[in-house]
Amino acid sequence: MRTLMDPTTRWGYRLQRIWLTPLFRALLRTGLPCLIVGFAIYHHISKPDVTRSMAEAVLEARAAIQERPEFMVKLMAIEGADGSVAEAIRSVVHVDFPVSSFDLDLDALRETIEDLAPVRNATLRIRPGGVLEVGVIERTPALVWRTREGVRLLDVDGVTVSEVNERQDRPDLPLVVGAGADGAVFEALDLVRASAPIAQRMRGLRRMGERRWDVVLDRGQTIQLPEVGAISALERVILLNSAQDLLARDITHIDLRNPRRPTLRLAQSSLEELRRIRGIEVGELGQ
After folding, report:
1. Residue 127 C-alpha from the chain's centroid
2. How far, in Å, CA of 22 to CA of 19, rounded?
3. pLDDT digits 0-9 by tens, 233-253
4. Quick one: pLDDT band at residue 2, thresholds 50, 70, 90?
5. With 60 as the cut, is the pLDDT of residue 3 above it?
6. Is the CB of residue 50 less than 8 Å from the CB of residue 41?
7. Total domain count, the chain
8. Do 230 and 161 lie in a common domain?
9. Which H or E element spans position 143?
10. Do residues 128 and 249 share a domain?
11. Most exposed residue of 176, 181, 229, 243, measured as fewest CB within 10 angstroms of its CB?
12. What is the per-residue pLDDT across 67-121, written as a single tens digit (0 to 9) for each?
């Protein structure tokens, strides 16, 4: 038989069981007071004047720590850069020393320094004693590039290192001319190395149509190289010159643009002499 229980007695029994649960008793004894205290603290600090006072206190405490002498950077030292590059770096690094190391964004400063044309790579660190050390690897000029806008020095990546007044300012570097030459520096340097046997006669390289090179020699001679296989074509000319003094002859152009049909162009005086000789031979045959 089911025993009917008074609803009041039933709820009292359930509450008694809940009260005997350890978790409920812990929450009631500890959690409720903590909740009341937390609510009171939140109500207090949510007031605008209290919030403002706390923020000012935090800022003062932070400043007191960050501005301690051991965290202050007093000067900047630049390593690996010559005088002009070092001066350019100082002009773009807008830092008023002394400054807290916490206020320095080293990554942003590094990017600013590497945006300078003569700088290939830069590293920054704070040395003991409050010194901001800037380590610089400069770009090394590899070619002189003459354009309509002026004369520039290019590194191996085709990046402009600096500008010069005229080509004679850097006679130690090979000369290249023509649009697009800065995009083919590696190939140009390979051609310069390949032309070492005739380096004394070489005046420079001319970029043609942004797709191939001409080797310009003294005495008005030009070696027209193909788009593909330029180095091997130049080496063949140098080999013929060593064997048969090809470049010592009265030739103005050696056209290798079509590897299957290389052609030679004679100087005008030699061409006229050749025509005269041929004319005499034809006349003698007619007699």
Report:
1. 26
2. 8
3. 999 999 999 988 889 888 999
4. very low
5. no
6. no
7. 2
8. yes
9. strand 143-147
10. no
11. 243
12. 566 678 889 999 998 888 999 999 999 888 888 888 889 999 999 999 998 999 9
Residue type, 215: V
Q: Confirm if 93 and 148 have CB atoms less than 8 A apart.
A: no
In whole angstroms, give the CA distance from residue 235 to residue 241.
10
> What whole-number distance in Å separates Cα of residue 224 and Cα of residue 227?
10
Alpha carbons within 13 angstroms on the beta-carbon side of residue 27 total 7
CB 74 within 8 A of CB 131: yes
Tokens 């320095």, residue located? 104
Instruction: Output the CA–CA distances (angstroms, integers) from residue 280 to 187, 254, 271, 276, in the order listed.
Output: 47, 28, 14, 6
pLDDT in tens, 12-25: 666 666 666 777 66
Same domain flag for 122 and 173: no
* Helix-helix angle 230-244:185-194, to 10 degrees: 20
Amino acid at 79: E
Burial of 84 from C-beta contacts in 10 A (0-12 / 13-18 / 19+): exposed
194 is written with which tokens? 């390949």
Pairing of strands 160-164, 119-127: unpaired
- Give a yes or no: residue 246 inside a domain: yes
Are the C-beta atoms of residues 190 and 215 closer than 8 Å to each other? no
- Show the DSSP H helices in 115-267 as ranges: 185-194, 230-244
Does residue 251 sit in the same domain as residue 159? yes
186 in the same domain as 134: no
- CATH assignment of the domain containing 238: 3.40.50.11690
Taking only Cα atoms into account, the Rg of the chain, rounded to an integer number of angstroms, comes to 41
Asked whether residue 147 falls in the same domain as residue 268, the answer is: yes
Which residue range is the domain that position 148 belongs to?
Answer: 143-272
Do 125 and 147 belong together in one domain?
no
CATH number of residue 89's parent domain:
3.10.20.310
Task: Specify whether the CB–CB gap between 90 and 76 falls below 8 A.
Answer: yes
